[in-house]
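During the no-cost extension, the postdoctoral fellow (Dr. R.K.) reprocessed legacy sequence entries with the updated structure-token encoder. One reprocessed record is reproduced below for audit purposes.
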Amino acid sequence: MTLPSNYLTASETVALVAAGKLTVTQVAKDHLARYEERDPLVHAWAWLDRDLILKEAARLDAIPLEKRGPLHGVMLGVKDMINTKDMPTQHYSPLYKDSRPGIDAGPVAVCRAAGALVYGKTHTTEFAATIKGPPAGNAYDQRRTPGGSSSGSGAAVSDWQCHLAFGTQTGGSTIRPGSYNGIFAMKPTWGAVSRDGLKVYSITLDTLGLYARSITDLELLAKVFRIEDDVPPPPVPKPLSESKFAYVKTNMWDAGSGPSPELIAAWDKSKKLLVDAGATVVDLELPPEFDTIGGNRHLHIMLGEGRVNFLSEYMIDKDNLDDGLAGHVENRSGISRKMLLAAYDSIAALRPEIDAIAGQYDAIVTPSVPGEAWMGLEKTGDARFCSMWTALHVPCVNVPGFASENGMPIGLTLVAPRYEDQRLLNVSKAVAGAWLKADEEKLLKIPAPEGAIHTQL
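Re-encoded structure tokens follow.
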């Protein structure tokens, strides 16, 4: 090997370890070297123990070949609001400082049983429920936010500090850091992956998120989690020349200060690349009833359910709870039960409608974020483009490839009907083949040895 193993994808690493060309201990040491080099700048990790990592690597190396799982050799980062049996889970909250639940969350247990090394806990905003940034910086420019609330997970994967990482999404907390850090991010269909052991913000919205530097790695994770379509997609992605895409701006396009120059440029260039590849591309405006979701009824559900799920922390120590979360409990926004029921019922009625609409296309293309990562670490950015899709429970994949004039990455989201996650990954691989190098010359370079490939199919 000419490159340290932290610059490989998870899938490449698994293959080399299985072939006896690489040990898990060496993989761990390569990642620790990267951590020691870059953590003083990126600060992606809320908790990491070198001795525990090396001990776990030695245990994995001692497992006979025939008993090894499909993630054997993979370094997995876990967002610090997801329980781990051998590490603290602190939620970026003084209420949970040094708290050790002593049990793995469902998704952690699945990946550990599949052979992954649970490498450390990544920074989150408080309870993954605020936009006040933790100390993590963007992998491309540490003066900028990596996004949130899965701040450290997006930064760590982008910076080659772990192969894969877990995020979560209630609004845009997986897709936004994926775009800001220039990597692949997947929000599966709601309910497709267990949320056992994850701190609950909104039971109706919360979804585990997945980060990787390759689509093949996301496919590997999906297989481990048994995220299966009723009709499996073809093993080889359908050519773009046989594909049809709907571009959907949503009513959030003109919200706030409107779309940024980099979003407009990515939108237009992405279309041209698909058309040049022979794809059919149409502009689609969703029926007006979808306009009620993004800045309205999604928020009613989030605030209404946050009122319930932060009550215990409020009762125990209100003074050490973020004031915005205390506001949820106190219902300062005035979300009535009638408003909450209207949000539940109206969005539920729209889910089969979006399935039917999205099912007419290979994927819907929609913005991931309004623009590049914000300067400063105080706020994690704007999730307005993501909340509608989260509420609709559909699977989403951020595909990177585009850049701002400042050299910061920006991606676009592909959307499919519920429980067509495998097909969406299949389509995403074809689309990524057209988009990944679109603005390569404009992107800032994350320090890495020659030959290191940041994102790939």
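The domain at 5-291+341-435 is CATH 3.90.1300.10 (Amidase signature (AS) enzymes). The chain has one domain: 5-291+341-435. The remaining legacy entries will be reprocessed before the final report is submitted.
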